[in-house]
Amino acid sequence: MKLLLIFPMGKGRVMGKHSFFKLVPLTLPYIAALTPEDVEVTIVDDLVDEIDFGADVDLVGLTVLTPLAPRAYEIADRFRARGVKVVLGGVHVTMCPQEAAPHADALVLGEAEETWPKLVKDFKKGRLKKYYRCPGPPDLKGIPVPRWDLLKMRYLPTYSVQTSRGCPHDCDFCSVTTFFGGKYRLRPVEDVVNEVQTLIESRRQKAPLGNIFFFNDDNIFANPSHSKRLFKALTPLRIKWLGQAPITMAWNEELLKIGADSGCIGVLIGFESLSQRNIDKMGKRINKVKEYEEAIKRIHSYGIKIMGSFMFGLDEDNKGAFERVVRFMEKTHIDVPGLGIATPYPGTRFYKRLRRENRIFDNDWANYDSTRSVHRPLRMSPQEADEGLIWAWKRTTSVPSIFKRTVFPSNRSLFYFLFNFVFRQTVRRMF
Ligand code: B12
Ligand code: SF4
Asked: Per the domain annotation, does 149 fall within a domain?
């Protein structure tokens, strides 16, 4: 049996072909690793490869995030037109099964650890069903190492590893808790260390900067005692790593030290807004705007850099929000800016509220990549929000701003200074 797994490319601005920041898409190498060994698997990433629509394959599988949905459906329809069976899976399909159903022979809803091997078995017997629903959150002990060998490495030379799933919080705009359930699940420390070791050993073929890892958990600091054990176990491997973390990591100095000693060089933190009313409305209880500055100082004092993520177009945002965030980033020396328009992803409470309030005006999923408004903000027009975002991106990636953020602070780093210039190129190509 021949299986073709495809990662569709977004039609919007984010992560398009122009981006220098092509991160390895972990999902499909992981699905390949869950696939029975007798199946011949090929992975094609629409972002870096050409799709051969005439390929000799028995089954096609596509992973679908919201902004990728229109392209995913287009690809699915073309394969189905010549009689090839197509399976769709991922967050968007799980949130919008009825929309996805006409484009697929089977839908994998939720996590796939149990359903995917069953689906492949059914397919081989000619008994493919339409829906495969995850029966409950799978145990992450013993999950396989993604099939990196199937990727043509045209990505940033870093490795991605997942050490946990889910998040104990439930912010209204975020799909994570709706998709993974409220329970924060961990992989055993030994499994993660083994996976990291395996990847380090294979680095010569795959990654010249081989020891930089991106832990793509939603919240790698969510369970402090586990995080400490994990970081201590990673320390002897002498890797450098990046991950996503909540602002509250700043208040656990022991964890900061152990994290930094284990090679943590940067974290992506969702500050989201400088308005506490916005934060309260989205239910991100861990964020206290008045504590941001002190928290940033503490994290920086351990040599950990920060990608600061902010969104605009929230209910309390007026046209001044853009400048306030830019000034804040310069004042607090945020090392890498992360800016977007608040986007109502299907299935989230934010989406449901905006629908109820009849404020969503753009239903083209391709535009749901946070680079433009798809809803009407309350205190500015969508156009003002979009222009403000572009201004803020240009301003934070301007040469004076890069200097202010990365050269003058005591915690300066040549790596982040140079990184900002490469990042600037990507932003300039996007807007
Ligand atoms: C790492 C990550 C990224 C990375 C890498 C993305 C990539 N190319 O792989 C970067 C930073 C580039 C990124 C970018 C974006 N991301 Co992102 N990202 C994640 C994150 C944290 C982990 C994804 C991951 O690698 N998981 C590990 C793999 C192994 O698991 P998985 O994908 O969840 O797949 C499982 C199931 O879903 C299922 N499955 C999935 N697909 C398929 C397909 C088949 C055939 C089958 C059988 C099963 C199956 O099986 C897997 C095992 O159970 C998730 C949050 C999360 N925890 O899911 C957000 C998440 C996926 N991202 C999200 C978003 C919105 C984006 C952006 C649009 C953000 C933006 N505005 O820039 C862009 C889109 C870029 C793009 N074109 O790909 C949203 C998606 C919401 C939605 N409704 O689509 C998520 C859920 C985060 C959130 N807070 O809501 N992201
Ligand atoms: S803390 Fe982050 S990952 Fe967790 S629910 Fe909120 S936005 Fe999502």
From this structure: no
